[in-house]
Amino acid sequence: MTAVLEISGLQKTYRSRKGARKALDGFDMVVEAGQVHGFLGPNGSGKTTTLRTLLGLIKPNGGRMTILGREVPQHLPEVAGLVGAIVESPQFFGNFTARETLSLLADAGGVDQRRVDAVLEVVGLRERAAERVKTYSLGMKQRLAVASALLKEPKFLILDEPANGLDPGGIREMRTLMRTLSDSGMTVLLSSHILAEIQLICDSVTIIAAGRRVAAGSVAEVLAEHRSTKVKVRLEPGVDMFGAAQALRAAGAEVTLEQDHFIVGNASRPAQITRLLAGHQIFVSELTPVTVDLESVFLQLTGTAPVEGANRQVDDVAATAGNGWGQ
Ligand SMILES: Nc1ncnc2c1ncn2[C@@H]1O[C@H](COP(=O)(O)OP(=O)(O)OP(=O)(O)O)[C@@H](O)[C@H]1O
């Protein structure tokens, strides 16, 4: 596979009278051709800074970036025509219709007017194209924004939070649209906080935390690498669950009691549980791995899982869980 986007060692420090803030600290990312690639990170982790730097809107302090094999920002003018991007919500004139809006943008960008109908069709606004934008729902405005980015027939589409503010139906439509674009051969990079969506839409992901890459690869790879070490344990009815929990805790296990079962949080070798409990004449009737999803991987890697009784501050990164017990 060829890379449409390659970023290595990207650095950005914002300086103001209040001091310096390192937004990107040697960040790396690779997006392969034809993929829908999810760009994930908690608030303030550096996603927008990365996308704005990529588009030449911010000057980095170090690192390398290439788009479609060309080094940017030096060669941005050569590839700009092949890149469509929505990094900040575009503002449209409310009194213009979608067709007028796109027609104006096509003229301004030297794009053939025939593209207007083509992109209206792709984003599903054909039937509503003669209505004023101010009467549009948020989802329709998002579609119009995507349509505007598609006018130039880009090979690479960059979307910052395209599903932001959409209802579940709108999110699903956006998902279908992303797939349609990818099936037509386009490479799509999208940042999002909606992890369940990313898991469904994206082929691959990059997770950023505090300006550095903390995970990357296909969704399946990232999930496999961070396989849950949690297991659900159920005992025969009537067996002393508290005694079992105590025995496991004494051996270093993290045990959370639930109503009719308990969860061992750091069970990298589940056989230890059965062996240890059997040693106490306690027998297990169910031992099931707790499945991991992108959201739990994200919370684990970025240290942003909620902490009971605390209001996590934007830059707080909690310590991540340790490795196993009794090894
Ligand atoms: N113009 C600026 N001046 C100073 N600091 C900035 C500026 N822009 C961003 N930052 C800081 O850089 C860090 C990264 O911000 P960035 O907007 O890239 O994060 P993000 O991942 O896009 O966050 P979100 O998901 O909340 O949009 C944050 O700590 C932010 O406060």
Let me know the average pLDDT.
87
Main-sheet strand order equals 6-7-8-3-9-10
Task: Could you tell me the CATH topology label of the largest domain.
Answer: Rossmann fold
Count of beta strands = 14
Pfam families: ABC_tran
Keywords: ATP-binding, Nucleotide-binding, Transport
Protein name: ATP-binding cassette domain-containing protein
Family: Belongs to the ABC transporter superfamily.
Descriptive account of the structure:
The chain is of the alpha/beta class. The chain has eleven helices and 14 strands. It has a six-stranded mixed β-sheet, sandwiched between helices. β1 and β2 form a beta hairpin. It starts with a strand and ends in a 25-residue tail after the last helix. Adenosine-5'-triphosphate binds next to β1, β2 and α1. Pfam families: ABC_tran. InterPro entries: AAA+_ATPase (IPR003593), ABC_transporter-like_ATP-bd (IPR003439), ABC_transporter-like_CS (IPR017871), P-loop_NTPase (IPR027417). Belongs to the ABC transporter superfamily.
Summarize this structure briefly.
The protein has 327 residues and is an alpha/beta fold. The chain has two domains: 222 residues, P-loop containing nucleotide triphosphate hydrolases (Rossmann fold, 3-Layer(aba) Sandwich); 59 residues, no CATH class. Helices cover 31% and strands 26% of the residues.
